[in-house]
Amino acid sequence: MGKITLEDLIKVVQQPEHSRQKLIAYQEKYGISTVEFVLWHKEGIPLPITDKDCKDWQFQLEMFLAAEGDMLELTQRGRFDTQSLPLIA
Can you give the pLDDT at residue 5? Predict the structure, then answer.
């Protein structure tokens, strides 16, 4: 049997990128933004989210903010992307 190293026991991730990716995945999975999730959860509005995902979503948001993540990075572009429109002079 081989020697167990610290890398075998601990997963090292880069923050806030790791938590940002997890938050975006939850937004896509459940079809709501992280801001909506937080607001609805605080208001006690029942959400069709598993307890495990709910707890992890909260944890990932805490990690994201602690690593100075920008909430604007979590917003998703809508169908109407203004960046692709030509400027009118």
Answer: 82
- pLDDT tens, 48-64? 999 999 999 999 999 99
Q: What's the pLDDT at 78?
A: 41
Computed from CA positions of residues 12, 75, 61, 54, in that sequence, does the dihedral angle turn out positive or negative? negative
Which pair of structure tokens corresponds to residue 89? 């002079």
Q: Which two tokens stand for residue 50?
A: 């598993």
Phi, psi of 86 (to 5 degrees): -70, 150
The per-residue pLDDT for range 23-51, each reduced to its tens digit, is: 999 999 999 999 999 999 999 998 999 99
Closest by alpha carbon to 40, among 27, 28, 52?
27
In residues, how long is the chain?
A: 89
Tokens of 13: 């991730």
Residue 66 neighbours by CB under 8 Å, 6+ apart: 15
